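for the writeup, i need someone to sanity check this before i put it in the appendix. the sequnce is what the collaborator sent (i think, or maybe the updated version? ugh). structure was predicted straight from it, no edits. if anything looks off just tell me and ill rerun, i have time this weekend
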Amino acid sequence: MTSELKVFNQEEINSLIPHLESLLAELETKHEDFRKLQDELFFEELLEDSEPSDIRIRQLEETLLKLEEQIQKICELGCLLRHPEKGLVDFLARKGEDWIYYCWRRGEKQIQFYHTLRGGYLERQPLDLSSQSTNA
């Protein structure tokens, strides 16, 4: 599941946010479906002391495939899905001469933070939104 990273500017990211919100909501639903089916199979196996049927295993595999396809849709945008459950997404960018990641979390209305390539969510820094430009 490899997609090529794109170099983004703030305006591009902000325009993608509504679509990304929708994709992440679908991903959350598919993930819940997978967990529910996985739990059902586990308890069926535990309570009935038997292996799950081929049909149930196929359902689990199909659900997992849908989950993977949804993740791929997000990655095809050129961003990095860092934490699907929290909705953390990084976007490669330039800040002056430095390479950075713009860091977005589901629910944020626009891009507001960045971090170094080696940093992460806990190290994100606020952008100066008063002078927002195409390359921060």
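The chain has two helices and five strands. The chain has a mean pLDDT of 89.
thx in advance!!
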